[in-house]
Amino acid sequence: MMRKVAFLCLSFFSILLLNAQTIDELAAVRKGNSIYQRAEKLRAEAMQLIEKGGEVNTRLANEKFKEAAKLYQDAEIAYRKGMATTKNFPKANYNLANSLYRQEKYEDAGNSYKYIAEQKENDRSLRAKAYHNYGNSLLKQEKYKESIDAYKNALKLNPRDLDTKYNLEYARRKMMQQQQEQQDQDNKDDQDNKDNQDQQQKNQDNNEEQNKDQDQQQNQQNKKDKQEEQQQQQQRQQRQQDKRQLDALQQNERQTQKKVMEEEMKKSGKSKQEKDW
């Protein structure tokens, strides 16, 4: 009996706690809605000032944009607090996604829009708008193919939505432009690679030609050096031969002079012997 009473008390307190969490969450969601609506109003006023033009209006518009940006951030905080444990607040989720989108957090916004759109129990109209804005988030990230798929899903739910049709065609044009730019870039890269290869081949040919010229010049220089060396060798041999001939002539002359002297001495000796004592 005591266990049964304890179990009932625990269940009762659990229900009270769950209800308290739900009340707190609802209060946070309502706060988020209020902040979000104020931010949207400020943004609309800023857009009107921009349309009017003028330096003063532009300055005032920028001030309103800044204030609205701060409110979008506060709204995000309130929505996240309101859905910390319970996430089945479709409109709160949608406004959270809008708050993220206004802060240019396109990837986070896109994930929130996608979550709402894929919940089939959600209202058909809400899912169509979520798919539309999911496409816008992808478009901002230049993910054109994915945005086209999102717009198509939006049109399946709301075929008469002219804004979605317009964005779909715009995304298609941007995707074609992106593909053309990518093709042009690829062609440019291919041409640059070809030009680089041609230049490298040209440089290689020039280097080979220069090396060939250098080899020819070296061969000619070697040939010239060899000829000069041969000439110098011949000159050395000629000088040696001339020296030998000169030495031979000088030797012959010495021998001749010696013979002449000997002959003279002989003649001198004979005359002395014939002299009277």
Describe the structure.
This protein is an all-alpha fold and 277 residues long. Among the domains are: 26-85; 104-175, Serine Threonine Protein Phosphatase 5, Tetratricopeptide repeat (Alpha Horseshoe), CATH 1.25.40. The chain contains seven helices and no strands. It has helices spanning 2-52, 55-82, 90-102, 106-118, 124-140, 144-157, 162-273. Helix 4 packs antiparallel against helix 5. The radius of gyration is 55 Å and the shape is rod-shaped. The N and C termini lie far apart (194 Å). Residues 1-20 and 270-277 have low confidence and may be disordered.
Poorly predicted runs of 5 or more residues: 1-20, 270-277
Number of strands: 0
Distance between the termini: 194 Å
Name of the CATH superfamily of one domain:
Tetratricopeptide repeat domain
Largest β sheet strand count, sense and barrel closure? none
Question: How would you concisely characterize the structure shown here?
Answer:
The protein is an all-alpha fold and 277 residues long. It is built from seven helices and no strands. α3 packs antiparallel against α4, α4 runs antiparallel to α5 and α5 packs antiparallel against α6.
Topology (SSEs and partners):
Elements: H1 2-52, H2 55-82, H3 90-102, H4 106-118, H5 124-140, H6 144-157, H7 162-273
Helix pairs in contact: 1-2, 1-3, 2-3, 3-4, 4-5, 5-6, 6-7
